[in-house]
Prior knowledge:
Layout: H1 14-29, H2 33-39, E1 44-53, E2 59-70, E3 76-83, H3 88-104, E4 111-117, H4 125-139, E5 148-152, H5 158-171, H6 197-213, E6 220-224, H7 228-239, E7 243-248, E8 253-255, H8 262-272, E9 297-300, E10 319-322, H9 330-339, E11 342-344, H10 346-349, H11 352-366, H12 372-396, H13 401-420
Parallel strand pairs: 3-4, 3-5, 6-7, 6-9, 9-10, 10-11
Antiparallel strand pairs: 1-2, 2-4, 7-8
This protein binds glutamic acid.
Amino acid sequence: MANQNNNLLNQINPYHSAVETLKDVADLIGLSSDALEFLQYPQKVLKVAIPVKMDDGSIKVFEGFRSQHNNARGPYKGGIRFHPQVSEDEVKALSMWMTWKCAVVNIPLGGGKGGIIVDPSKLSESELERLSRGYIQAIHKNIGPDIDIPAPDVYTNAKIMSWMMDEYEKLNQNFYNRGVITGKPVSLGGSLGRDTATADGAYYVFEALAKKLQLKADATIAVQGFGNAGSIFANIAYQKGYKVVAVSDSRSMAFSARGLDIPELIEHKKIHGRVDTFKESEDQIENKEITSLKVDVLVLAALENSITHENVENVQADIIVELANGPISPDADEYLYKKGVKIIPDILANAGGVTVSYLEQVQNASNYYWKAEEVKSKLKEIMIEAFDNCWETAQEYEAGLRYGAYIVAINRVVNAMKDRGWI
Ligand code: GLU
């Protein structure tokens, strides 16, 4: 069983889950106790207080973190999350998952992650800008194109990345340092295709799995989470002819057994801020029930722990795609594996985002920019190769794709650590 922490929400602690999965895989592959000891801990965790002058003239202090898990294979890499539920342990877990993610897709980067405890919807745009710049002022000595490269994550976006990059350059005598942050707008050195990269990458690996399992062309899909990744994935699946029967956001769900018109639903969400009021929605079902629907494919694109021991027995899908990080707790994962559910794990399914972040950095370094098709075809090649590696490794160990992916990743990281003489 995963460990429980004692926070108010009594949620499963994601860092404990991350370590638990690492230990399980270490057992399976006979990893040395030195390597396991090393990999359990982030190499550095920064905790900063960010004072922000609010629009009413008062000062409010926000707590922020940056966890740098492992840089054996390259500079730390990972997004920055703005969310009220951010915690030090969540950021630590996410940074470890970034280490595995970059290793699975074999890009020369390590794992890092940042976060600020804040509900960004409660800040004005200028307060948000001061917070974003304040965060960079607090951590700038610990980041850089060859040190640690932040990017967007939950509730952060290209605009926030621009402020952060600009602040970093100002703090460094205005040297152009575009590669310090990825997920920037195209006007400031962002890559074409970065905005859709997470969903595109997930779709490539989903397609590869669908082929292996001979999934029917009109399979039904439910998507939990209708943000950047979830809505774009739903749209690609819809365009490809799959029947997206349910979509949920943080407060509501749209459901239609006949399949939802996803482009229209995206418009609806933009205007009304919710999905249940969409005209095609047939039933009023509570949004958290989406994980229990009888569908062929369940896409988890919300936050951690959407499936735990509490609701895992209700899951009816045959395939799960983890577009979010850590959406299934380790005990629930074991239950689903035994039941025969095929899961494309987060560290593979959502690695398209960081892969195009890497391609963005490559373009920044050479100051030469590629067409969208070039970015997409590179992304596809990387994702398919990663899928094949994970699939073959899973077969070899008679395990699921999650363990296949972890084995590929851990071996790569451990080899780099050995070559450096760390272990
Ligand atoms: N936040 C994204 C992730 O969790 C992207 C990270 C990046 O591009 O560095 O993978």
